[in-house]
């Protein structure tokens, strides 16, 4: 069990650093806000998760890349933090925008995940 935790933790560190790097780079070359970049990254993570799951990797590689790297690359906490801040400020327009982005991630995420599995 300790080995699995270490594998996931190492993968999560790699994934979160990759997410940070991509956010930094994409923000510099795009007019999209950081929160829209998170939507794009989460959709990329859905594709990556589908593709990597479709490869039928064995342990420990499957654990490293799916739970670890893809888990660290994707983020659910960012939209939830945005939602909490918007609720605290009673900012209806911002609440609606966060709910829209979260809906997009879930509605598009499933077919993108399936596409990744199919292409693997």
TrEMBL record:
GO-annotated cellular components: plasma membrane
Catalytic activity: fluoride(in) = fluoride(out)
UniProt membrane topology term: Multi-pass membrane protein
Keyword Ion transport: yes
Entry superkingdom: Bacteria
Gene Ontology BP, a term: monoatomic ion transmembrane transport
Keywords: Cell membrane, Ion channel, Ion transport, Membrane, Transmembrane, Transmembrane helix, Transport
Transmembrane intervals: 6-23, 35-53, 98-119
Protein family according to the UniProt entry: Belongs to the fluoride channel Fluc/FEX (TC 1.A.43) family.
Annotated function: Fluoride-specific ion channel. Important for reducing fluoride concentration in the cell, thus reducing its toxicity.
Name of the featured protein: Fluoride-specific ion channel
Lineage: Bacteria, Bacillati, Bacillota, Bacilli, Lactobacillales
């Amino acid at each position: 069990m300790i080995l699995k935790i270490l594998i996931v933790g190492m993968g999560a560190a790699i994934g979160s650093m990759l997410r940070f790097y991509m956010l930094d780079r994409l923000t510099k070359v795009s007019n999209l806000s950081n929160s829209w970049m998170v939507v794009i990254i989460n959709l990329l993570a859905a594709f990556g998760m589908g593709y990597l799951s479709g490869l039928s990797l064995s342990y420990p590689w499957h654990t490293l890349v799916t739970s670890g790297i893809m888990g660290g690359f994707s983020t659910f906490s960012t939209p939830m933090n945005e939602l909490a801040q918007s609720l605290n400020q009673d900012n209806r327009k911002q609440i609606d925008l966060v709910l829209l982005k979260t809906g997009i991630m879930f509605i598009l995420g499933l077919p993108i995940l399936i596409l990744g599995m199919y292409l693997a």
